[in-house]
Amino acid sequence: MARTLDLGALDLGEWVRPGDGIVFGQGTGEPLSLTERLVEQRQHYSGATVFFGTCFSHTFQAGHTDHLRFRGISGIGTMRRLVTAGALDPIPAHVSAVAGLIASGAVACDVVMLLVSPANEHGEHSFGLVNDYLRSAIARARVVIAEVSSQVPWTPCDRPLKADEITVAVFTDRAPLELPAAPFGELERSIARHIAELIPDRATLQMGIGGVPEAIVALLSDRRGLGVHSGMVGDSLVELMESGAVTNAHKGLDEGVTITGVLFGTPRLYRFAHRNTAIRLCPTRHTHHAATLARVRRLVAVNSALEIDLTGQVNAEAIGADYIGAVGGQVDFVRGAALSEGGVSIMALTATGKRGDSKLVARLSGPVTTARSDVDVVATEFGVAHLRGLGLRQRVRALAAIAAPQHRERLLAEARQVWGEP
Questions:
Q1: CATH code of the domain covering residue 51
Q2: In this structure, what DSSP letter does residue 370 have?
Q3: Residues 294 and 350 in one domain
Q4: Looking at the 3D structure of the chain, how many domains does it have?
Q5: In this structure, are 56 and 161 located in the same domain?
Q6: Which of 64, 82, 343, 413 has the smallest set of CB atoms within 10 Å of its CB?
Q7: Is 131 inside a domain boundary?
Q8: How far apart are CA 40 and CA 21, in angstroms?
């Protein structure tokens, strides 16, 4: 049975040891009261390592590396400043691999910190907003510390958390972190219009966060029979389900249920998900595993890129030494869509950056996140390039055609130096 403590009486030095590995719920699932206490008391467990999935709070600062060590799989959100300061060493890893890294000990996990809902009538807690690799972390951990918040929704999952799995429980009324939908304008709408044409009725959607995914969703209210099988969902899911566009009736598995690993949204989404049996939070072995995705029908996976070269290689991680993205679940869903009956994977990006530089390039400035052999469709505001089955020179022509007009001639000239006449 869990030991119950008031937050003010919580001495983490009693539970966390120097050199421990600490894993906590990512994104909106961050147990803010616990992580704030973690950094406040860090001198008591000097040398402990904190593992990050994504982080959008300002809890962790570069100065906290006086006693803590930071590792993570992303440079997204507030983690970017930790990476820039040299305080966090990014781990290049697919989301589908994280549970295995924890299980094997490659990512140390001695202590887990969770944000969970109040117990139901059976004494079980819901994971609330995040249920991705946390089960693997719990299985590995010596100590499980839970922040039980009255503001966290009860969301259906395959295996709720039992009280006897919790070492220490702290009860709060603290609201969880919010992640509002990204704004979008005409540029994002232009990209979305091209992509929406590739999403038929009865398609199953996977999308990430950002302005383009939000713009796509805004164009789908007239669709019927859509499904959702995604690593994350945001507030826009509410609109699609309430409008009747998403019914999950034709996915091939988990019919009638939206499948996701995390809820990255605001109270609107949290209220909608509370005890809603049409939504289920699942671990990554179900949301991201190739064998599962292969069973999903008409999976349309939409992901983003920092830059794409003219042969189709995708960089979603870094521009030079500036690590600002992540491997994430991109490759998992790109390959899953290829295995899905009627599936298609789409890389969406604006043709130019903020300074007017082309995001379609002759040579990548950073790493290859997704190999060109896996890339299917690329979309910008200038159109769509279907790359599946094309030769390298054909790809050069197809991708140059959707670059910004002012860059096309230069890109083709640079390509000639590598591939000859495209």
A1: 3.40.1080.10
A2: B
A3: yes
A4: 2
A5: yes
A6: 413
A7: yes
A8: 17
Say if 180 falls within a structural domain.
no
Q: Which amino acid is at 198?
A: L
Q: In the beta sheet, which residues pair with residue 9?
A: none
> Is residue 333 predicted with pLDDT exceeding 80?
yes
Q: What separation in angstroms does the CA of 366 have from each of 85, 93, 187, 209, 377?
A: 19, 16, 25, 22, 21
What pLDDT shows up at residue 215?
94
Number of H helices, E strands in the chain: 13, 25
Number of other CB atoms surrounding residue 151 within 10 Å: 15
pLDDT of residue 422: 58
Q: How distant is the alpha carbon of residue 219 from its chain centre?
A: 22
Q: Residue 356 region, left (φ>0) first, then alpha (ψ -120 to 50), else beta?
A: left
CATH classification at residue 191: 3.40.1080.20
Residues 136 and 214 in one domain: no
156 φ, ψ to 5°? Answer: -60, 140
The answer on 194 and 130 residing in a single domain is no
Q: Give pLDDT tens digits for 127-145.
A: 999 999 999 999 999 999 9
Range of the domain at 241: 186-419
CB neighbours of 310 closer than 8 A, spacing ≥ 6? Answer: 360, 361, 362, 395, 396, 399, 400, 411, 415
What is the pLDDT of the chain when averaged over all its residues? Answer: 95
- 83 lies in the same domain as 140: yes
Q: Work out whether the CA dihedral 50, 104, 366, 408 comes out positive or negative.
A: negative
CA distance 83 to 68: 14
Amino acid at the residue 245:
A
